[in-house]
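Q: Here's a chain of 250 amino acids. Please give me its 3D structure as tokens.
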Amino acid sequence: MAKVTLNADERIDQLYSKNIQIIQSPQVFAFSLDAVLLGAFAQVSKSAKSQIVDLCAGNGAVGLFVSERTRGHVTAVEIQPRLADMAKRSVVLNDLTEQITVLNEDVLKITTQLPKDSVDTVLCNPPYFKDQPSSVKNPNPHLAIARHELSANLDQIMTVTSDLLKMNGKAYFVHRPERLDDLFSTMAAHRLAPKRLRFVHPKADREANMVLIEMIKDGKPNGVRVVPPVVVYHADGTYGEEVHQLLYGN
């Protein structure tokens, strides 16, 4: 691991199941379980020619998590300068500067730098909540942008996803189950067909609070598979076996 300079409010966290360290700050953003689950759910090509783009990348967690499973190039796109800087330093920290590029750029303008129809896989952990006048937003602007559709809404992100992907390229999103209507309608509007769903339940007797979605550009309609769910916690509050392994390894 290379040495990097940390700001006063930053720390380095280790995802123990992988040889990955990530710079985090509770004042700005810290990756959570949704990023870990998305990284595990995504199926990325091992080919060195593969082009992978992580939209709404935050501090770069998802792109870093998938980097160990591919020789392809990962481009992380993040609009917030502070988060993009953290992601860049995490890339240096993990000696991945040859494999991962971080762009401090507006997702809505990214096709000025990345050619359309050129990407094999898009990854995205987007803001979950609509920007509505009545919605209560975090007073911390970094967290508000990460959680609410302030800089880009779902339709705009799906537009960019479809523009970037090659025909039959795949995208992987994590979102909230209550937004499934929006997800399916925006996918259909942008030539993206859902192919695989996986729901995430806090406990076995609780409703799902996350959904993982695989979609394919210009894919045939129907044929959606709903695979067995992720159950995060046992009844006693300890992590389920799958989640424990994703976080801590064997």
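Q: Can you summarize the key feature?
A: Helices lie at 33-41, 61-67, 81-93, 141-147, 154-164, 180-189, 241-248.
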